[in-house]
User: What shape does this take?
Amino acid sequence: MAQITSTAAVTIPTSPLLAAQLELGINRDEAQDMAAEPAATLPASQSLGFALGWDYAHHGLTPPALHLFAASPLRQGYQAGCATFGHRTLRAHRHTQLWLALRTHAWTRGRSFEDVQVTPNYLQQIEVSHCPITRQRLDDHPGSSKQRSIDRVRNDAGYAAGNLVMMSRAANQAKAEHGWLQALELARSVEAGPIHRIASLGPAEWQRVAVLTSFVTELSHEEAAAVPLLVLPPNRLRLFNPIQALQALVTRQLATPGWSARLARIEALLPTEGAKGDFNRFLMALAPRVLAVQDLAQEPQIRWALEDAWQQPLLQKRWLRFALHLNAAQTEALVQRAAAKRLISCMHVQQHSQPSATEGWALERKGFCTPSVQDVTSSAYSERANPSFTGS
Assistant: This one.
């Protein structure tokens, strides 16, 4: 399984609980008792809430007022953290605030959140200026259809590295729980009419949603090869299908000088003369897009030009014919060899073994925490939304 990335994530260590004084409606003795109590002795939902409040305090930020009622474990953790850190807090930047908001959103819904790899630094790496679905410029205005939001591409998984993409609030809400097959059916429906927009998205947007969800769906080699690359994989997204990883890597090469020599060397790695010939014919159909890309200066425009090339039936036909010369194992080996020989420009490919590829995704629980967490948080908060943050 491949992950296309530019940099690696970092881990923010968990801070130890210390005793000190706090204001905010709790006296010194209570603060000391709260800070001294091991988080492991608390029920799971309370432990997560307490740790979340602690991190708000550690970064000098105030939690949402919705969670500051007296019995809230988040408030208790926040009070204990304030008692411990006082004014000795960490610097909080925009991605720290997004990280805390995302964790709060996940916690109130009982969703699993993998906090070892998903850090403020990780969220910075997946940040984009434009929505990959609607192609609109994102903003930070609460409630705006273009507001930045973090989507779990695979809805039956939690908030985990490799499953997160930044997109607009409107695209996030429209995608909702739709997976590969549901999004594909919607794309075909709106294209056929008579209704040409569903949940504010038209045919082109639903096709991009379908392609995006296909990346994290295990498909047969033949089925994955038949999916046109109408949206390039966002940074740090894990690709379950090797042929789609190869498809993305080859396409991205055309955006940088020297692409012809690199692709010729990739062609030389192919196992048969038939595969080499069909790969060359595929490139002959793709290459004309280079002229358009060379005239573009903005990265989003370059991405869109490469994505739009895959709307050509001839290009997809030639790609499929080439791809069927290989199987999944051969394709994965080809991607690995190309990466090892540094034939991939401006990209980094990280291979994951099957067990580690979905580590922290909570697939066995459909993306939720333990049942106790889901039951407690849903009964306590009744899925109340954070008005300044959207996520799925």
